[in-house]
């Protein structure tokens, strides 16, 4: 017989797990108490893991927000540029009937790096928002062009 150091009950030796480091070759804690101990430890680990996961999520969200803020700031000029065109197109009836929105958007999307989409005949001069009136210009070319008609 052996007394468990946790529940203080005296039990049969078969109620204890083997533990070669102990003098009698058995754990000082009975199987029943060991089971409860292990279950609690597992629960504690899960809790710890959840807390860590939450922390990670929070950190990740903050990082992502910082990235988006930075991206928005760096591209603000571009955003303003395109939203102003879009707004103008909403109010002015200069939208051609031959090009689909998809084709026009594709043209904007495919512009080479550092280029703007330019209306050859400017919208302010009555030019149409049509693929046949669109071209790629670098930002510098676009600025120097102003509202002059090229081509
Ligand atoms: Zn016990
Ligand atoms: Zn068109």
User: So how many helices?
Assistant: 4
Based on CA inertia axes, which overall geometry fits?
A: rod-shaped
Overall mean pLDDT stands at 86
Strand arrangement in the largest pleated sheet: 1-2
* Share of helical residues: 40-55%
Q: Runs with pLDDT <50, length 5+?
A: none
Order of helices and strands: EEEEHHHEEH
Proportion in β-strands = 5-15%
Q: What is the β-strand count? A: 6
Biggest sheet: strands, sense, closure? 2 strands, antiparallel
Ligand catalogue: zinc ion
Structural class based on helices, strands and sheet pairing: alpha+beta
> What is the C-alpha radius of gyration, as a whole number of Å?
36 Å
List key phrases describing it.
151 residues, alpha+beta, two-stranded antiparallel ribbon, two-stranded antiparallel sheet, 50% helix, 15% strand, binds zinc ion
Structure description:
Among the domains are: 2-45, no CATH class; 96-151, no CATH class. It contains 4 helices and 6 strands. The protein has helices spanning 31-74, 76-91, 101-109, 139-145; strands spanning 2-3, 10-11, 16-18, 26-30, 115-119, 134-138. The strands form 3 sheets. It has a two-stranded antiparallel sheet. The protein is rod-shaped. Residues 96, 98-99, 130-132 line the site of one zinc ion.
């Amino acid at each position: 017989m052996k007394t468990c150091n946790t529940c203080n009950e005296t039990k049969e030796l078969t109620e204890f797990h083997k533990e070669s480091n102990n003098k009698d070759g058995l754990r000082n804690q009975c199987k029943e108490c060991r089971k409860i101990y292990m279950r609690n430890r597992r629960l504690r680990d899960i809790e710890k893991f959840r807390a860590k996961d939450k922390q990670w999520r929070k950190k990740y969200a903050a990082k992502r927000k910082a990235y988006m803020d930075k991206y928005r700031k760096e591209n603000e000029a571009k955003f303003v540029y395109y939203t102003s065109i879009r707004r103008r197109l909403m109010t002015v009836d200069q939208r051609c009937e031959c090009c689909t929105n998809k084709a026009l958007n594709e043209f904007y999307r495919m512009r080479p790096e550092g280029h703007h989409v330019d209306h050859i005949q400017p919208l302010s001069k009555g030019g149409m928002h049509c693929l046949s009136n669109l071209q790629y210009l670098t930002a510098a070319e676009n600025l120097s062009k102003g509202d002059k008609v090229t081509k």
